[in-house]
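Support request from a user on the community tier.

User writes: "When I paste my structure tokens into the form, the page sometimes reloads and wipes my input. The last time it worked, I copied everything first. Here is what I submitted, just in case something in the input itself triggers the reload:"
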């Protein structure tokens, strides 16, 4: 009788051990699956996954949305004028310089606000020295995000141009995120700041390039 009790106790403890082992394996499997998913999110949208002070994982939905995959060639239909590869390199190079000179505004909200504040220039004057230059990304979805900007630029006689990649535009503008639009200005807008002749020349060259691109707009 005592032997039966011992055997029953051993079987019970063995079952508990097996159950605990199974739970651990399941938890480990789930943890592995979660880690894999988080890794996929981070690969698709760099900067989307972060860990807070308490060690909790946070996923930034805005970053994921901004970095949503868009098929190659899926450019907005109004991307006009659109830079070719050679012109794109020149524009991105100047955008990098603008970021260093602090002569760059980024994002739809900031650019639209700046354009509206800009006094409309004379069309002839804008050909030589525009008050600002707007650079847009053509691979934006939904297109309504930037569809109003070209019209706004035309109302203020501000030249604009499209580039094929928002990722490249964001990188040139010294941001980790893809950027839909930037605005390049001739000065940093700070009073008492000395004028940089090198940047002045670079801005004029960009102005000339964008105006030239605009002369070949496809209808």
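"...and here is what came back when it finally went through:"
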């Amino acid at each position: 009788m005592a032997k039966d009790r011992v055997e029953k106790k051993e079987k019970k403890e063995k079952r508990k051990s097996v159950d605990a082992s199974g739970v651990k394996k399941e938890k480990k499997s789930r943890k592995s699956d979660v880690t894999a998913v988080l890794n996929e999110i981070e690969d698709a949208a760099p900067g989307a996954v972060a860990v807070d002070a308490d060690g909790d994982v946070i996923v930034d939905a805005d970053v994921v949305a901004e970095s949503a995959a868009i098929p190659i060639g899926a450019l907005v239909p109004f991307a006009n004028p659109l830079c070719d590869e050679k012109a794109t390199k020149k524009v991105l190079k100047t955008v990098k310089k603008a970021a260093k000179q602090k002569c760059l505004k980024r994002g739809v909200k900031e650019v639209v606000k700046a354009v509206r504040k800009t006094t409309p220039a004379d069309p002839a004057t804008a050909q030589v020295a525009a008050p600002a230059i707007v650079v847009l990304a053509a691979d934006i979805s939904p297109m309504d995000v930037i569809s109003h900007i070209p019209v706004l630029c035309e109302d203020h006689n501000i030249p604009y141009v499209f580039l094929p990649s928002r990722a490249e535009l964001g990188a040139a503008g010294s941001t980790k995120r893809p950027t839909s639009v930037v605005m390049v200005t001739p000065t940093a807008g700070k009073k008492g700041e000395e004028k940089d002749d090198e940047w002045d020349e670079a801005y004029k060259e960009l102005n000339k390039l964008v105006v030239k691109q605009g002369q070949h707009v496809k209808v």
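Agent notes: The reload is a front-end session timeout and is unrelated to the input. The radius of gyration is 28 Å. Confidence is low (pLDDT under 50) at residues 67-72. Escalated to web team.
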